[in-house]
Amino acid sequence: MPKSRTSSFTRRGFIAAGGALGLVAALAACGGTDSAKGDGGKDNGAAASGPWTFKDDLGKEVSTKAKPKNIVAFTGTAAALYDYGVPVKGVFGPTKTADGKPDVQAGSMDISKVEILGNVYDDFNVEKYAALQPDLLVTNTWDGTYWYVPEASKDKILKLAPAAAISVGGDATLDKALERTADLAKSLGADMNAKTAVDAKARFEAAAAKVREATKANPGVKVLVGSGSADLFYVSTPDTSADLKYFKQLGVEFVTPEKLDEGGFFESLSWENAGKYKADVVLLDNRTGTLQPEELKAKATWAELPAVKAGQITPRVTEPIYSYAKCAQILEDLAKSIQNAKKVS
Q1: For residue 128, how many other CB atoms are within 10 A of its CB?
Q2: Would you tell me how many other CB atoms lie within 10 Å of the CB of residue 319?
Q3: Residues 6+ away with beta carbon under 8 Å from 36
Q4: Which of 252, 245, 244 is CA-nearest to residue 285?
Q5: Beta strands 266-270 and 52-55: pairing type?
Q6: Taking 60 as the threshold, does the pLDDT of residue 26 lie above it?
Q7: What radius of gyration, in Å, describes the C-alpha atoms of the chain?
Q8: pLDDT digits over 206-225, tens only?
Q9: Residue pair 196/98 in contact by the 8 Å Cβ criterion
Q10: How far apart are CA 87 and CA 173, in angstroms?
């Protein structure tokens, strides 16, 4: 993510698309560790009765007098912690859809048991946050900022409790982001030797191997990463997001857009030009607020894409939940889509 708010809106708006792709048009895990040590070999964990410290991916030594209990987190990060057995008191970010159902970013969490401080980008109820008496705020970071913490109220929010951020942009790849999330979860009390955690990690590693095997067995399959709004079709580059960079390492061949918008995440195409790039598989943004296949049927140029004609569309979890279990499922689905794809471009 860009460093200034002005320059960040194109990329920030795209990634935060849940319900906001119209705004974009206008404004533009995995391989963990069994150690709770952070950079420099410092112990991130602590006895329940002693102080807690964790060196986050902003390079900050985050500390509290005791292991945090009242944790508030970005929804996707909270969902990852939940998978590791670490509960949170409150969440901010896409959590509940208009019909009251859990957003895809809520993962397996029971959203009725958490305080929702904000459900859309730039929405964060500071008063509710203070009432939770937070010990720790946890979120992701793309560019050195706290993801989904509004710039306008950031100073008030960060004064109320220490904050820790896990990098999912920049040099981070999916495996590294998952490793760091596991480090954080362990420091907060997660048992990484529990059968569920061990099995999830093994499942992820097996799924990564399946992707490698699929790309070797079906070479030349071109994958386009797309996201649809009412007016524009976004084609993402594989070189900036943690998930796509990791998929590339596993051998996936991507369509790379030629003319990236400000921020360097994607090229925006009018629907008249949506057929600019040909591909065999489309990975389609699955977030709330982006157009899904049923809605995209109304777009004539979408229907003419070779991959769409062939029915070779796979949902893309654009903002992964960084737990081994959730990432394993992503890789399993990717492997299947590549393995079964026919060359149509």
Answers
A1: 15
A2: 26
A3: 43, 44, 45, 183, 186, 187
A4: 244
A5: unpaired
A6: no
A7: 20
A8: 999 999 999 999 999 999 99
A9: no
A10: 25
CA distances (Å), origin 150, targets 123, 157, 186 = 7, 9, 28
- How sure is the predictor about 129, in pLDDT bands with cuts at 50, 70 and 90? very high
What's the one-letter identity of residue 320?
P
- The pairing of strands 222-228 and 61-64 is unpaired
Buried/exposed code over 62-73 (b: 16+ C-beta within 10 A; e: otherwise):
bebeebbeebbb
**What type of residue is 61?**
E
Return the residue matching tokens 């795209």.
Answer: 14
CA 6 to chain centre: 22
Measured between alpha carbons, how far is 317 from 286 in angstroms, rounded to an integer?
6
Per the listing, tokens 């007016």 go with: 231
Strands 61-64 and 52-55, bridge-based pairing = antiparallel
Q: What percent of the chain has pLDDT over 70?
A: 86
DSSP state of 271: G
Per-residue pLDDT, averaged over 142-146, amounts to 91
Among 327, 329, 325, 10, which Cα is nearest to 143's?
A: 10
Q: Measured between alpha carbons, how far is 148 from 128 in angstroms, rounded to an integer?
A: 16
DSSP letters spanning 82-136:
HHTT---SEEESS-B-TTSPBPGGGTT--GGGSEEEESSTT---HHHHHHT--SE
Lowest mean pLDDT: which of 28-42, 235-249, 269-283, 301-315?
28-42
Residue 143 is predicted with a pLDDT of 85
| Residue 339 burial (10 A CB sphere; 0-12, 13-18, 19+) | middle
Tokens of 138: 């946890």
Burial class (CB in 10 A: 0-12, 13-18, 19+), 282: buried
Place of tokens 């790379």: 256
Give CA–CA dist 71/188, Å, rounded: 10
Say what the pTM is: 0.85
Residue 225, φ and ψ in degrees, nearest 5: -100, 115
